[in-house]
């Protein structure tokens, strides 16, 4: 049910909270400033104090912001978005670095200039593949819980000298729960004590049957250290993607998800955004969670300024007025007024949720921030 705190109600009417409390007292209700009242009571109070009430449901404010269906004729193929998961120290980051290194032609604009949470490479078969670096398992789950389905394929990294470990199992569970196909990368095969066959057998116990054991899950023996098997892995990813037949409409206004965001001293809020449909352009007005801004610059994974980014392309977005959060959905809106309406509404919701949580503790988060 819709609720509001007395403080927030007073704020929105530009009245003193104490006057709201007095009014309710006359009605026989005793309240503190942090108490939550229902929407009908709030409406009564507002009208008695001479305000016009306009009740806005979340569905109205957020209407049409996400998941507007793409029409068939505008769909075109898009690269797969791949997330690497696996147990601690099994070589996820090393693998991503090695894939990127072999892929970036030396001397290419910028080269590998910085660490970025997402990047795109070209497979030996010619197709593009987008990799996401950041999500730890917690982030993956959080994103999924917030409805942000960013991953098309999970690469499960298992170290050949260590085998299936607790977080390997966790990753399998996450991929299965999300209904995302999984490809196994048996890493560190260069090590003398590597035992890839043991990995295959252990995976069986978690109902992952790899191809060489008669199953359907693609598996690749790789080494982030020597580069062995990386091209095969990329080819496998492209083939898997072709089966998935991934499509998006590049012509609509952009939607996507914040992969990571930070406040940069020089550049202000910087959000790495994965564009999922449509095309994001400089000058666009974007909302992400409770923040909005006008896109001042788009920077690709090689550190170069670009004018636009289409489906499955990760870009750094400059121009947000505040720093959004990883997992926030991003959408382009038609005007600054609309951006303000949406983000102010979300900010209020966020405050109210915080207040409701803290209410019983006496002082609220809102009080403390004053
Ligand atoms: P977390 O992010 O901490 O979960 O670890 P990670 O999975 O990203 O592993 P990381 O890439 O940091 O690698 C862990 C260690 O394994 C490092 O010391 C790497 O150098 C080493 N390593 C990774 N891949 C290979 C490989 O293919 N062969 C060998 N010999 N060592 C590797
Ligand atoms: Mg790592």
Please give a structural write-up.
Helix 1 packs across helix 2 (17-26) and helix 6 (137-145) runs parallel beside helix 7. This protein has a six-stranded mixed β-sheet. The chain has a six-stranded antiparallel beta barrel with strand order 11-12-18-15-14-19. The protein has a two-stranded antiparallel sheet with strand order 1-2. Helix 7 links the parallel strand 7 and strand 8. 41% of the residues are buried. The protein is elongated. The model is unreliable at 106-114 and 360-370 (pLDDT under 50). The protein has helices spanning 6-13, 17-26, 39-48, 58-62, 92-103, 137-145, 166-178, 196-204, 230-244, 336-358, 365-369; strands spanning 3-5, 36-38, 76-77, 81-86, 118-122, 128-132, 153-159, 182-187, 219-221, 247-248, 255-264, 268-277, 280-281, 285-288, 291-299, 305-306, 308-309, 314-320, 329-333. The two termini are 28 Å apart. It is α+β, with helices and mostly antiparallel strands. The structure holds guanosine-5'-triphosphate and magnesium ion. Residues 92-93 line the site of magnesium ion.
């Amino acid at each position: 049910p819709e609720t509001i705190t007395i403080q927030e109600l007073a704020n929105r009417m530009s009245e003193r909270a104490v006057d709201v409390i007095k009014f309710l007292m006359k009605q026989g209700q005793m309240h503190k400033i942090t108490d939550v009242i229902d929407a009908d009571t709030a409406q009564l109070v507002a009208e008695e104090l001479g305000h016009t009430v306009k009740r806005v449901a979340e569905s109205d404010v957020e209407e049409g912001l996400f998941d507007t269906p793409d029409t068939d004729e505008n769909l075109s193929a898009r690269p797969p978005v791949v997330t690497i998961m696996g147990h601690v120290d099994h070589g996820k980051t090393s693998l991503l670095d090695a894939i990127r290194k072999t892929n970036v032609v030396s001397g290419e604009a910028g080269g590998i200039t910085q660490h970025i949470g997402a990047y795109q490479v070209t497979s030996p078969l010619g197709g593009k593949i987008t990799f996401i670096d950041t999500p730890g398992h917690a982030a993956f789950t959080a994103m999924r819980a917030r409805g942000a389905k960013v991953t098309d394929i999970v690469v499960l990294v298992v170290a050949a000298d260590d085998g299936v470990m607790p977080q390997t199992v966790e990753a399998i569970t996450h991929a299965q729960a999300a209904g995302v196909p999984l490809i196994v990368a048996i890493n560190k095969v260069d090590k003398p004590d590597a035992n890839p066959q043991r990995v295959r057998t252990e995976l069986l116990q978690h109902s992952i049957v790899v191809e060489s054991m008669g199953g359907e899950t693609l598996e690749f023996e790789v080494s982030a250290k020597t580069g062995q098997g990386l091209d095969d892995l990329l080819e496998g990813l492209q083939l898997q993607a072709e089966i998935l037949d991934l499509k998006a409409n590049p012509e609509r206004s952009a939607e996507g998800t914040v992969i990571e965001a930070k406040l940069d001293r020089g550049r202000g809020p910087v959000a790495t955004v994965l564009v999922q449909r449509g095309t994001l352009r400089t000058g666009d007005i974007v909302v992400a969670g409770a923040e909005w801004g006008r896109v001042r610059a788009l920077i690709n994974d090689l550190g170069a300024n670009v004018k636009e980014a289409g489906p499955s392309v990760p870009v750094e977005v400059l121009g947000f007025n505040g720093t959004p959060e990883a997992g926030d959905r991003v959408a382009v809106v038609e005007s600054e007024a609309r951006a303000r309406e949406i983000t102010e509404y979300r900010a209020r919701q966020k405050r109210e949720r915080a207040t409701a949580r803290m209410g019983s503790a006496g002082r609220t988060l809102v009080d403390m921030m004053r």
